[in-house]
Amino acid sequence: MRETFDDKITEALKKGTENAVKYKDKVWEGIRIEIEPHYRGVRRMSRKNKKSNKLPKILGTGAVAAVLAFTFFNETHTGRAAIDKIKEMFVPEKQIVQEIEGSKEDTSMDLKESKMGYILYIDEERYYMEQKDGVDRIVAKHQPENAPEVYMEISQVEDKSPEELAGELKSKLKSEVQTFKDIGRVSEPLDAIFFYGLNGSSWDSKVVKYYLVDNTKGGTFVIKQQYFFEAAEGHGVRLDNILKEFRIVEIEE
Amino acid sequence: MEKDILKRVKEGDQEAFEELYNKYADYALRVAAAITRSEASAADAVQEAFIRVYHYIVDFDLNRPFQPWFYRILINECNRLMKKKGKTVSISDYLENDMNFAKDDLHHFEEYELLYRAIGKLEDINRIPIVLKYLKGFTEAEIAEILAINQNTVKSRLYKGRQKLRKFMESLGRKEAHR
Q1: Is B116's CB within 8 Å of A34's CB?
Q2: Whole domain around residue B151: which residue ranges?
């Protein structure tokens, strides 16, 4: 029977891709490494988190959140003095190496202090921080067109522990997203109760992540990240890396 | 059978997930290689696609066919990797001046190799439907679902892709005749 042009295309594709199959075992090994933590009970969200676990390498810092105490004598100067003291205690700028979409990137991070009593470092080339009505927002400077806004919001609930607050926030998120995942307690990118939601798996699907952090005074820092699905290896990693340097600063008046 | 495996994967059965991988990995690797034009990128794309399947299978409707859903994830991964690596080279460049093929001694290539190279030079919008149809055997309706485009658009892209390939192979034939 005479071979048609369609048959020739099929033959070309079949023969031309024969070698690709040799990666099968290696690829499975990579997948297994990624998903295995789930079977050990150490659950991770995705490969991106694994990458961010390795990086960034921030010089001279530990992984555990620090609680520092300051005493101030003049109440009117408390806020300013606290900020000045914080600036003395923490270096104003850090260089980190972070892995974004498979490539290593040197990033300069600048110290940001919050009146809520924490510090962190942000990449001011890509994000700016606004503080309004008791809520801090770290917002991407370049927002995508026709996709959910990219930001990380930090607020504080002073009278509820992370465990107490988790129930109502989970219910709220469940009602807003198609997929909800309750991960539980995590130590990376910081010690927190972690859950997240997705609105599909197309490039512009909304991703919302919550980290609930004990504020050490019976309350909770509520950290909410929002970005779109395709940005998981970009903004998703960058925002988690910012959280790796989240430090609670206790200000005693 | 497939439904049973998927049900077990949804329930968190790791062996079922491995079965699922073994069932679909070969063609996933082939398709990804033909789309990305790189076996290493294909391996990355397939790895990431299966990890995504693992995470999102909980939302997958067992009454729907698995492969269009899976290949949509895979193609997205391929596109993401290609976007990172650079632009697509148009086959029209080759048809117009044959510069790159002229450097090769085409005598040493089998017909299928030439055709495979030509497929690799097609623009994404033509190449991806061609690969899904002729390598994986998806119907036009399935390709439309995977690529989230109209079925008529699929028909048109397949037709144009075939035309470009035919034109290319004919130009090679003429070249051989003039040797």
Answers
A1: no
A2: 91-177
